[in-house]
Write a structure and sequence with these properties.
This protein is an alpha+beta fold and about 575 residues long. The protein has 13 helices and 31 strands.
Length: about 575
């Protein structure tokens, strides 16, 4: 339902950092006090069954705190350290690859204004104006490999290889957005960028980056980790922490996401020093990116190459993170501060890194007071509960994936005398506690209050007892569109995607639903959600929830479907034509 996130080899590179940042004001934080603060934020990881983290604080080139917690391998009880190697998550690695692109241009190996068809002439004619820089700005028009393949599979960790990836782009019949002008976040842009950089370099990108970027900085543990089977010394196992600690699901290994960076906290300290040195080539390349790569639409102050620029108490703060907010480094350039965090559970580090930076800046932050929600059940009739039923649309969702509106719904319904929420593919029973309020716990306490907006619409406000921001939802309708069985029968049939050469089969299901049958995916319910439109849950292999997509049937004058389109913010109405019976 929610997303959350989350020891130094200081060489001569920090000498330049000290000079460059000498104008920065000292935080005047006492070492023992800082150590206690870091421990207070991360000490919860010091358990035999906990993933780990390595935290480093640098001020004007001097390490003022260096602490490690938890385990790199829980099953083998190997402590996490500053030499432990982790894989930065998907979009966090873009900073490194885009810096490589700028450095290749500096070296005369390519121009960011080169047309992509110069390197891959088999790409469709409509992509003729698209440049390397367009890929870096997500304005190419190429389909998102991840989103498109999920029409035929239920995992991002698919074995989609280079030839399949390129063929997906070569055969794309039309652009998803207007090439060079529109915007859609597409992993294919990054996959194609990597292949172009390798052609320009004349060698694997991982080898070029080692020689041109990581080697000169003495970042000996850092590499492009694009071979999931490669054995990397000191590499941590990856975990997720929910009700219990489990191994993380496999990473995406197909071209659209296989440009990971493996690194350590020690190496990232050297990366921070390179950014602090005003004379370094890394600083120069970053300046180029800030000028050439756009801010991401729908996301505040976030650059597509994995950089957010924020302000804390008047100080500019540079946050190194991807689109999902996983943070591995925060810098305060004018004060010469860098805070680095590596972990094998990205869900639990980001917020505490931010708190640590605020502490260093002596920023005042209102202390979080855990709310006390009512939890005791109060008697209520089924008839009273039914007034809360309906489909509620989430408000204020980030729209960084494309210009297509983000749509997320929750259905409230009564079953067996209990009001329940349907969150994507799982249901949550609510406890009525009186006064239009309900309560449930899902690892954190949640209060659900039904009320009216200022203009009289029905709404839900959800408050959480762990400090997560409140969520508001507006009721779209008290009752879903209810097609008759005869209407459902008309939608049934076989549908073919010419682009993917893949078939969907639609059959009537129980009640007012259709069932989508695919040869490579488990049967999926299509739930009515507006005239001729159905909602489905797409599973991506990253948890039980998945996400919503919408299937719309297009009808001729006789009321029969000619084709259907499937879409969500990274999939612009993929077409399946109905096959005559």
């Amino acid at each position: 339902m929610r997303t959350a996130i989350a020891r130094l080899m200081i060489g001569f590179f920090f000498a330049a950092a000290v000079s460059a940042a000498s104008h920065g004001q000292s935080t005047t934080v006492k070492p023992n006090e800082l150590k206690k603060k870091v421990d207070s934020l991360f000490i919860g990881l010091n358990k035999p069954d906990s993933p780990g983290a390595a935290i480093t604080v640098v001020e004007n080139g001097r390490v003022i705190a260096k602490r490690a917690y938890g385990f790199a391998s829980i099953e083998h009880q190997v402590p996490f350290s500053h030499k432990t190697v982790v894989r930065l998550p998907y979009s966090e690695a873009r900073e490194f690859m885009m810096i490589a692109a700028v450095l290749m241009e500096k070296d005369g190996k390519l121009s960011l204004n080169d047309k992509v068809r110069k390197y891959f002439p088999e790409l469709p004619a409509w992509s003729d104006p698209v440049t390397v820089l367009d890929l870096m700005n997500h304005r190419s028009g190429f389909v998102d490999e991840w989103a498109t393949v999920l029409l035929t599979q239920n995992s991002m960790a698919n074995r989609f290889d280079r030839s399949q990836f390129l063929n997906l782009l070569y055969t794309q019949p039309k652009p998803e957005i207007e090439p060079t002008k529109g915007y859609m976040y597409s992993n294919s842009d990054m996959g194609l960028l990597k292949f172009i950089l390798e052609k320009a370099a004349g060698e694997p990108l991982r080898d070029w980056m080692k020689k041109r970027m990581f080697g000169p900085l003495k970042m000996s543990a850092t590499r492009m980790h694009d071979d999931v089977l490669e054995i990397v010394p000191n590499m941590a196992s990856r975990y997720t922490v929910g009700r219990e600690v489990k191994f993380a699901r496999p990473d995406k290994i197909s071209p659209g996401g296989n440009y990971f960076i493996a690194t350590s906290a020690d190496d990232l300290a050297l990366w921070a020093a390179a950014h602090a040195d005003t004379n370094s080539v890394i600083t120069w390349a970053t300046k180029q990116l800030l000028e050439k790569v756009r801010l991401m639409p729908g996301k505040k102050n976030h650059y597509i190459f994995g950089r957010s620029v924020e302000s804390i108490d008047g100080s500019e703060v540079v946050v190194h993170q991807g689109v999902n907010g996983y943070t591995y480094m925060i810098r305060v350039p004018r004060k010469g501060i860098a805070v680095i965090g590596t972990t094998n559970d990205w869900g639990g580090v980001t917020d505490n890194l931010t708190k640590l930076v605020k502490h260093l800046l002596k920023a005042t932050d209102a202390e979080f007071v855990k709310p006390q929600f009512l939890t005791k059940a109060v008697p209520v009739t089924e008839a009273e509960l039914r007034k809360y039923e309906g489909v509620y649309l989430w408000q204020g969702l980030e729209a960084w994936q494309s210009s297509r509106p983000v749509r997320r719904t929750t259905t409230a319904y009564v079953a067996d005398g209990v009001l329940k929420f349907k969150f994507l593919s799982y249901d949550v029973p609510l406890t009525f506690v009186g006064g239009n309020k309900f309560y449930f716990s899902d690892g954190y306490g949640t209060q659900v209050e039904f009320s009216k907006t200022e203009d009289g619409r029905d709404q839900i406000v959800m408050e959480f007892d762990d400090g997560y921001p409140s969520v508001r939802k507006i009721r779209e309708s008290a009752k879903l569109w209810s097609p008759t069985r005869e209407m459902l029968a008309r939608f049934a049939g076989r549908y073919h995607s010419r682009h993917l050469d893949y078939y969907w089969t639609i059959v009537p299901g129980e009640g007012e639903k259709l069932i989508l049958k695919r040869p490579t995916v488990a049967d999926t319910e299509l739930i009515p959600d507006g005239e001729n439109t159905f909602r489905m849950v797409v599973q991506d292999g990253h948890g039980p929830g998945g996400f919503n997509a919408w299937v719309t049937f297009h009808i001729d004058a006789n009321g029969n479907p000619t084709h259907l389109t499937a879409g969500f913010p990274r999939l612009m109405d993929h077409r399946f034509d109905r096959i005559s019976q």
